[in-house]
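>> received
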Amino acid sequence: MTDFANTDLLVLDRVHFRYPDGGVALDGCSLAIARGSRNALIGPNGAGKTTLFHHANGLLRPQSGEVRYAGATIDYGRSGLGQLRSKVGMVFQNPDRQLFSASVREDVSFGPCNLGLPADQVRRRVDRALRVVGMDAFADKAVHNLSFGQKKRVCIAGVLAMEPELLILDEPMAGLDHAMQEELLMVLEDLHRRGITLLLATHDIDFAYRWSDRIHLMAAGVCTAAFPSADLAAHAAELAAIGQPLPAVIPLHQQLLALGLPLPAAAPRSCAELSASLAALPLSPPYPRKENPCPL
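>> returned
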């Protein structure tokens, strides 16, 4: 088996999985998620991202290879899976697949109640989870009356009420407008500050570069590359192989450096960061300028 760091919380080690119709979803896939990190999984549709997620919390079982959590191979017995799913929470892309109770409070209560916790402890967990995602004022609202973005927040609250160590989100930004995306991003940042490890799938390379600590690329059932997000500029070929460009800020930063602007050599992680660097430059630049190729 492959060697992984002992700080890794979740490890998929050469996992193979084929669906009954013969389709290969994971083809010797290896992935390591470090405890406390923010991770973006990027790949085209059909790459196997959702299947990988289903292996991470025991919804699917490898046909070969193994999945380890906190250093131990997953126990697929009823007790072992119950313990795993109390530590690894998953939020599906479509919230309507995950919400089934009449009210918000009832839905968020479902997981903790299934753990057999006392009623007062369930209530405390539910109240805390709704407060974290900013939905405490909606606790007694009917789920079907919520907006799409609010439903996603309730799904996250339902997982948080289980007090997970690892939160997996499948395309969490899909279907959200810009304002809702920014609100969800604030929720994710708060969860990270609380020590929760985050793994999400996204097609948005600019968001992945701006937000994550590590980026994992996936194609045809295999994780083709994994690296610190700050090193993304050096992985243009691997990105192109899965149909992704570099984040827009990277070539823009390179063009500005070529013009002689004294910007930091390391590429900024967002256009806002680049803008701040530009704003800090002197107003009267002594920058070297190229000769005019067509003097009058």
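>> The longest helix spans residues 178-193.
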